[in-house]
From TrEMBL:
Pfam families: Abhydrolase_1. The keyword tRNA-binding does not apply. This is Alpha/beta hydrolase. InterPro entries: AB_hydrolase, AB_hydrolase_1, AB_hydrolase_fold. The keyword Hydrolase applies. Residues 27-153 form the AB hydrolase-1 domain. One of its GO terms (molecular function) is hydrolase activity. Keywords: Hydrolase. It comes from the Bacteria.
Length: 280
């Protein structure tokens, strides 16, 4: 199988069909994107690691090509975690290496807490679990304000506010002048932009308010690594990751770049991920 052209597969799960893209060979590495994103944002990372892993990037249910059977409902991180477990089982039962970024890190934490038998090691890169903070009230209020902005002013205004909170520019988001010139990246940009409404209406609050089961994660044998971007120091998402690592009693691992380091520093990020997965 070419490392460049993935094998596209679908998996029927309760309530949805999961689009996933398989590259390479070796142990399975499940790649979970965050929030409104899909497999496309992790394609560069997947290609870079396909000489060492069978990389499997997917669209979480309701995003892009992973269609829901019915109308959208509130997203539940434990349901996303069940989907991830079914993917690992469909790929040969695991245990698998797992990488999740942002909200995808939350999904990885749910998978590792609920099905440690399926997880060889998880790298949760800047997971958005605000309830790990000693005082999460400001962070929760900020997320609720984004949601209120969505209800009152619509998706474009809300996504701008959301990206601003996370120190990201609109080139990653809703502004048309930020469309990439590369055709594959442009297609990903279009799909992800079309997911903003679903994310704001049904994903933002339940994903950020998900509380990882720290007790299970500390005691069930799954190896969990919190990855933090060196370019995110001083940002809220960095503080959240430090708080999670502290509660797990582990040392966070530095990764190149900021919240989007897997995209902006793909080569170095892939090496850091490989090292973190294999360090155990």
């Amino acid at each position: 199988m070419s490392h460049h052209e993935p094998e596209v597969r679908t998996l029927k799960v309760p309530g949805a069909t999961i689009h996933h893209e398989v590259r390479g060979s070796g142990p399975v590495l499940l790649l979970i994107p965050g929030g409104p994103q899909d497999a496309g944002v992790l394609a560069g990372l997947a290609r870079r690691l396909a000489d060492r892993y069978t990389t499997v990037a997917y669209d979480p249910r309701g995003n892009s090509r992973s269609a829901l059977d019915g109308d959208p409902v509130e997203q539940r991180v434990d349901v996303h975690g069940d989907d991830a477990a079914r993917l690992v089982e469909a790929l040969g039962g695991g245990p698998a290496y797992v990488f999740g970024t942002s909200g995808g890190g939350q999904i990885g934490l749910a998978l590792a807490a609920g099905r440690p038998d399926l997880v060889r090691a998880l790298v949760a890169h800047e997971p958005a679990c605000v309830l790990m903070l000693d005082d999460p009230s400001d962070a929760v209020a900020a997320d609720r304000h984004v949601y209120d902005t969505y209800l009152n002013e619509g998706a474009d205004a809300a996504i701008r506010e959301f990206l601003g909170l996370n120190g990201l520019d609109a080139g990653e988001g809703a502004q048309g002048d930020g469309v990439p010139s590369d055709p594959e990246e442009a297609a990903t940009f279009e799909r992800v932009s079309a997911n903003f409404e679903y994310f704001l209406a049904h994903g933002l609050l339940p994903i950020s308010l998900y509380r990882p089961d720290v007790e299970a994660l500390s005691g069930n044998g799954a190896r969990v690594v919190v990855g933090l971007g060196t370019g995110s120091e001083g940002a809220l998402i960095h503080d959240i990751g430090l708080a999670l690592a502290g509660r797990l009693g582990t040392e966070p691992v530095p990764f190149p770049g900021d919240h989007l380091g897997y995209d902006t520093h793909t080569e170095e990020f892939a090496e850091a991920l490989h090292g973190a997965l294999r360090a155990g």
